[in-house]
Each structure stands twice: as structure tokens, then as C-alpha cells.
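agent> step 3/5: call structure_predict on target 'RpiR family transcriptional regulator' (Streptomyces resistomycificus).
agent> reason: downstream docking stage needs a structural representation; sequence fetched in step 2, passing through unchanged.
tool.input:
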Amino acid sequence: QGGGYEYAASLGLTAAGLAVAGPGRLSLDHALGHSVNRNWMVPVAFAATGLVTALVVGTRNRRLRKAEEGEQEALFEETFDE
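tool.output (status=ok):
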């Protein structure tokens, strides 16, 4: 398992397909009568995605810096029972 792209690609293609096709007859949007389909939701979703991405990347970079400096404790306890 050396970092293949297949899983990420299949998730991305599925998301892109759903985004292009839009809400269908069996969707939650259709079941709710498109009551949550508002124009302001797209910019808010993009902003929230950007903020969460920045938070995750920033946290990861801090952890990597601490690991390089030797300040980070182990994330998981490794136990090998034989």
C-alpha cells in the first residue's frame, strides 16, 4: 500500500458526478422540497471548506515541526504480542 491514487480518484469522480448531475428524484433535496437549496449556501460552503482545510493543514504542519524538533510524543502505543 504505497499511496495509490485509486481510492481518492474514485471519491473525487463520484463527487464530481453528483455535483454535475445535481439533486435527483431520490435525493434529500427533493425529499425536503428543495427547502435547503439557497443561493447563499454555496459561498458559505466554500468558505467553511477553506477554513477547515487551513485548520487541518496548519495542525499537520505544527505536528510535523514538533516531530522534527523531537518534542512530539507518540501518537499511538505500539504493542506487538507474539
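agent> step 4/5: record observation. Residues 38-71 form one domain.
agent> proceeding.
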